[in-house]
Amino acid sequence: MMKLLIVDDNKMLVEIYTTGLSERGFEVLHSMSGAECLDLLKNEVPDVILMDIMMPGMDGWETLMQIRSNPKTKKIPVLMLTAKALTIEDINLYGGYIDGFLIKPFTLNALSDRINDFFKIREEYRDIVHNAHQRCSDSAKVDEWAESGRQFYVLKKLVKVFEDEYGGILKEGAIKTGMPDTLDQIMEKCRLRSKRFYDLTDELGLSDLLPDDLMDDDVCRVRPS
């Protein structure tokens, strides 16, 4: 049974999520604040954290960075919950630290499906990383390859959110001019993650292990077609 931790200051929503997701086969923990979340994580290791962004006191972003700075919790996947779309500034500052986001409101079925999809993708990626470790003797470099691939995947998905608004972000591999500086910074981060990921893929001889959604690099392309 997969263990979820819901972090949200809205008591009614927490009760709805907890009851509905428990009925759908998940073990559900909950916290009403960022501080309570960090305290709970001293004794619990959930499979994924669903983190509301707008909370009084320590908000979701600050809580996220506390989680990532702790060696015991830094690898726990975190999906951000928000009532509005993430801003360009949010993605620039935190895009490399999250594992996805969901925009409220959503039905319990939609939330359950999204969580199940996340676990499916995560297990597939774990299998890929396991196979890479079996093949390569340099464990540290494989770990770097896996993390750069994870960050690239998340950033690429987040960048696509803005494609409609900006009419397409890349053209023939170059960042388009006239976009906000922050978006340029995001694209540069995405390109650097992409370059490092593919450089390590070539160095370690792992191209045959790449999933299709990383091979289909249509947003942050740094390699020739």
Automatic annotation (TrEMBL):
Instruction: Say yes or no: keyword Phosphoprotein present.
Output: yes
Keywords from the UniProt entry: Phosphoprotein
Q: Which SUPFAM superfamilies match?
A: CheY-like
Which superkingdom, per the lineage?
Archaea
Looking at the record, the residues that make up the Response regulatory domain are 3-119
PTM-bearing positions, type 4-aspartylphosphate: 52
GO-annotated biological processes: phosphorelay signal transduction system
For whether the record's keyword set contains DNA-binding, the answer is no
InterPro entries for the chain? Bact_response_regulator, CheY-like_superfamily, Sig_transdc_resp-reg_receiver
Taken from the record, one Pfam family name reads Response_reg
Q: What is this protein called?
A: Response regulator receiver protein
Q: What is the lineage of its organism?
A: Archaea, Methanobacteriati, Methanobacteriota, Stenosarchaea group, Methanomicrobia
